[in-house]
Amino acid sequence: MHARTEPAEAEPGAIARPPLVRELLLVAGLFLVYKFGRQLAAGHTTEAFHNAHRVWDLERAVHLPGEGSAQSLLLHGDTLAHLANTYYATVHFPATVAFLVWLYLRRPAHYVWARRILAALTSAALLTHLLFPLAPPRMLTATGLVDTARMYGPSVYGPPRTDHLSNQFAAMPSLHFGWALMVAIGLIVATRSRWRPLWLLHPLLTLLVIVGTANHYWLDALAATALLGLALAVIHPPHRTVTTAGRVQEKLVPAEEPVLVGAAR
After folding, report:
1. Is 208 helix (H, G, I), strand (E, B) or coil?
2. Which pLDDT tens digit goes with each residue over 202-220?
3. By mean pLDDT, which of 52-56, 167-171, 207-211, 230-234 is the weakest?
């Protein structure tokens, strides 16, 4: 006579995979709110150029390297500049989506954590864009930089006066860099490969591209890093424990739930 095996109960705090339709609607909604919010920040041309001069002067005052040092690396040939522009135009959003999809399928608790981090970072960036419009260095004559997208293509922006699809005066913080850095951190935290630090090459390459193409200042990346660091300090990653059956289980820290739900929903 065989003993009946009782079904295992779920561990308290364990995170199940969130409903797919809800997550798709949530992520799409956050993206649309951000795009609409950026449009609200558009049009502050005079203030944006005034802030650009202030940022440029501050960088020189604190002896940051000139953005031209990064751009010179890309101007050794048309091909390299074209590749950098292509990277800027095509990698940013798809890489972040692929990151979230992989976490959703393989690390549900880390997915919830990463989605909340990205939502908090993006919300903070939108607020900064509204309060501090900033023209990118490619528009500022004093920088001596060239608009590599206009010269070598491809370009995701049209002339500022006729471009109604994007806000070109939202340089700070750089979400290109902030999202790339979060992708790297998220994969390092969620995986166990000894090669996982190599994911940091993604934000490093992104930094070279956004500065070298004259779309961002160094301070734009530093501002994104500071905001991401603040979000990471408040929103903690899940704990990973091994059950008696030898399976890895992920649990979010209970104390963070009220903060995160409010930030993400």
Report:
1. helix
2. 999 999 999 999 999 999 9
3. 167-171
Distance CA 59, CA 220 (A): 11
CA distances from 247 to 17, 240, 243, 250, 259 (A): 16, 10, 5, 10, 29
Q: Distances in Å between the alpha carbon of 225 and those of 28, 36, 161, 238, 263?
A: 24, 24, 30, 21, 19
Reference 137, options 79, 54, 81; nearest CA is 54
| Rounded Cα distance, 155 and 162, in Å | 14
User: For 42-87, how does the pLDDT look when each residue is reduced to its tens digit (9 = 90+)?
Assistant: 667 889 999 999 999 999 999 999 899 999 989 887 899 999 999 9
What the block records as the tokens of 249 is 């289980």
SS3 assignment, position 115:
helix
Predicted pLDDT of residue 10: 40
| Backbone φ/ψ region at 63: left (φ over 0), alpha (ψ -120 to 50), beta | left
Question: Residue length, the chain?
Answer: 265
Round to whole Å and give the CA distance between 38 and 54.
21
Distance CA(201)–CA(125), nearest Å, equals: 23
Element (H, E) at 70: helix 67-74
Q: Which residue has the tokens 């806000």?
A: 167
* 35-39, 88-92, 233-237, 245-249: least confidently modelled range: 245-249
Question: Which one, of 228, 209, 214, lies nearest residue 90 by Cα?
Answer: 209
Alpha-carbon distance of 228 to 173, in angstroms, equals 10
pTM listed for this prediction: 0.83
Give the pLDDT confidence score for residue 22 in this predicted structure. Answer: 87
Distance CA 205, CA 182 (A): 14
Residue closest to 175 by CA, chosen among 208, 223, 139: 223
